[in-house]
Design a protein that fits this description.
The protein has about 350 residues and is α/β, with parallel strands linked by helices. The chain has two domains: about 5-160 and about 280-310, Rossmann fold; about 165-265, Rossmann fold (3-Layer(aba) Sandwich), CATH 3.40.50. Helix content is about 40%, strand content about 20%. A seven-stranded mixed β-sheet has the order 7-6-8-9-10-12-13, sandwiched between helices. Strand 1, helix 2 and strand 2 (about 80-85) form a beta-alpha-beta unit. The longest helix is centred in the N-terminal third of the chain and has 18 residues, at about 90-110. The protein starts with about 20 loop residues before the first helix and ends with a strand.
Amino acid sequence: MQNENRVRREAGRRPYALQRAGAARRRRAVGVIAVLCCLGLTPTWAAKCLFVSSYHPGYAWADGVERGLRRVLDGRCELRQFDMDSKRHKSDVEKRASARAAKSLIDEWKPDVVITADDNAARYLIQDFYRDHRLPFVFCGVNWTVAEYGFPYSNVTGMIEIAPIRPLLARVKAIFPAASRVIYIGANTLTEKKNLARFQQAAVAEGLELDARLVDTADEWLAAYRRAQEYDYIIMGSNSGIRQWDDRAVAEAIVPMTRRLSVTNHGWMMPYSMLGYTKVPEEQGEWAAEAALRIIAGTRPADIPIVPNHKWNIWTNTRLLEAADIALPRDMLAESHKVP
């Protein structure tokens, strides 16, 4: 019930029973919608799209995925959203309960296509209930690989989330060629364990000695950050899932202890990092939304290849760079986005 209360924001006005519509009927629906939109009219019915986010509103990555998705789908299908909230309710029991609540919504509302974001929706909803089902799914934000979920299924396509780890480590090596001892700090979560494993593989290829500290609380994170100043540089994993985290308090606490370069692949970690090669969450949402529209128009999910993301941004944090008296190349500073 609590999860169902988090279902938010719908587009369109009256549902139309398309759950058993064939490809030809869905193509006619999209055609009618397009004609009405061109005439400046709002359709009174539309295909139904359900968006299941693994996380919660206010989590920066999830909000970015949602922005991209809504940018494409606004006015083009009737949209509902369900938030699993699995960063804050992260036990296996809670995740399975949330997935069952999402399934109940699917059974009741009967969407034409379901879009999911991030790993927990793929694992606990698609894998557990909808393998090779007649209902089509488009996932996005699944980290690195879908092999553990057995994708592709006949009814599933999507975009994998791959961080630009090798470009980031290669750039740091070019700037600081003597750096060899590195530490990774992140949350003690499933996603962070997957991210750490990828950094460990990349570190071997780059000839780096990589240690790691995955933590549960903000105090543990700060203690790990203080000890990390003994390394050549620090890789910042995600803070999502760390309890008692206060953005402002942590950002202020690290300034006087900062002496080493810190880098990240997460945009929301830039207040605590000096250099970021960050993924673009809107890319995930936009691609998934476009794929959903293709499915509504008659394309089979199996005919849409699973793809990785292709975009990233470069960020720098002047305050932390100055606090540690670290100089980055001028061309990098010039082309980077700056932390406000």
